[in-house]
Amino acid sequence: MGGGCGIGSQAHPASTLSGPARPVTVPLGDRGHTVDLPDTDPRVRRRVTGWAPEQVAVALSAEPTSAWISWITGAFQMGGGGGVKPLDPSAVGSVVRYGLAADSLPHEAAAGESLVYSQLYPFEGLRNYTSGIIHHVRLRGLEPGTRYYYQCGDPAIPGAMSDVRAFRTMPAVGPRSYPGRIAVVGDLGLTYNTTSTVEHMVRNQPDLVLLLGDVCYANLYLTNGTGTDCYSCTFANSTPIHETYQPRWDYWGRYMEPVTSSIPMMVVEGNHEIEEQIGNKTFASYSSRFAFPSEESGSLSPFYYSFDAGGIHFVMLAAYVDYKKSGEQYRWLEKYLEKVDRSVTPWLIAGWHAPWYTTYEAHYREAECMRVEMEELLYSYAVDVVFTGHVHAYERSNRVFNYTLDPCGPVHISVGDGGNREKMATSTPPMATSHADEPGHCPDPTSTPDPFMGGGLCASNFTSGPAAGSFCWDRQPEYSAYRESSFGHGILEVANETHTLWRWHRNQDLHAAVADEVYIVREPHNCLLNSTRLAY
């Protein structure tokens, strides 16, 4: 018999082996107004001087024997017209010293990348931005499952090296080797709710963090620093281009540094990272600030890539670049999935920003074109779990494929409620507390496509099942196992080749709580459709 509730209703977590869970909706009400941290908050202020590194971060490479260290030196600049002159990336070196003890760092990596990016608006009265110098250095030859101490900066310049930090590499690749805990969060932002989410997440001591897009919401601001909860509601008719206030990225990097400098974080793009500027250029900040294992995984793109963490193979995909079967992303995904050996990495987990399976009114069936193009490929390779964000609420599905309960389909989990300022609203009244199956809340099909996702109008009325002839169900769909509107984060704990425990940690009303948990169980003998290399 199916479960589906949180731990308050049963002694042990439910299991997907029990079959589809009975749909559960937890009514939590309005989360209240969400407020950004101001630029006067000491946690977002620049605390270094000269060429000293700040915003230090660790990211994984494709394999646990390698990792990326990133940081920024020098201050960003803001100004109008041509008054902003970029810093010279060659003015300061990119060096990481590392070792197995804080007082002994015998290894040095100096082959990396340093760059500066600009966000430029060719309109009178708008302020342009140029970043500090961003550094990315890859460490190689690391031992899996090992704690490394490191310093980054330029040892040739006095005061230009960071304090000693430490991080742990992922376990060795193999079917009996897994990270202890993986934190999953989306749409994080930089609000007081963000701080609650991050504090609760850190208490769970994750070994890895997945951030599923919509990082700091710099595009809810004008270039003069004026912000809003809904840009299109407030500014759409008064600005010549969708502006951003790029210093919010620096504020976010400073606030997050205690986390990102010690726990590897893997990021994928969301719609709030598009940030259009002069010459129709997009994603400049996202592409510049984070290190991605793109080259190592053969994608050569910051938008989609893959990596291993013990016996888990992660595939991070892009909802806002071409995902069609004829495109580069699809061809890369198809080629890469063919190489995945499930006897070595039994778990195959995918992540991207916009969910395919959401029952909330906001963003309902918005990613339908991407689903139509890619779902069959992911199903044929028996992807186990899909993590997404975007919708500012929590929802977990039953195993599903093509809107139908399927014991071999992945479990889709949407966690787009990390704490963002955008609250529960889109550009118009639909709210993340409203469900498309409630009377009066089913959106017009023509309103669902997102122009930045491409593909046109792909969502239409269902042709079979309980919702046949309608665009929305008249009750919580059977593929939706659990949903609630709350801020929080999730923790994934993989136990072995077949069992993983998923927990959703709600921080509603600033109190951490486990609201939903389930054992996700693989059945490789029944479901590995496109692979003869099974994980026993």
UniProtKB/TrEMBL annotation:
CDD domains xrefs: MPP_PAPs (cd00839)
Gene Ontology MF terms: acid phosphatase activity; metal ion binding
Enzyme Commission code(s) on record: 3.1.3.2
Family in the record: Belongs to the metallophosphoesterase superfamily. Purple acid phosphatase family.
Domain Purple acid phosphatase N-terminal: 53-169
Broad enzyme group: hydrolase
The entry's keywords: Glycoprotein, Hydrolase, Signal
Ranges where the Purple acid phosphatase C-terminal domain occurs: 471-509
Keyword Secreted: no
Catalysed transformations (reactions): a phosphate monoester + H2O = an alcohol + phosphate
Domain Calcineurin-like phosphoesterase: 181-394
InterPro entries: Calcineurin-like_PHP, Metallo-depent_PP-like, MPP_PAP, PAPs-like, PAPs_C, PAPs_N, Purple_acid_Pase-like_N
Pfam family, one: Metallophos_C
Protein name, UniProt field: Purple acid phosphatase
Residue segments, region Disordered: 1-42, 416-441
Domain of life, per lineage: Eukaryota
Hydrolase keyword on record: yes
Organism for this UniProt entry: Panicum virgatum
Composition bias, Basic and acidic residues: 30-42
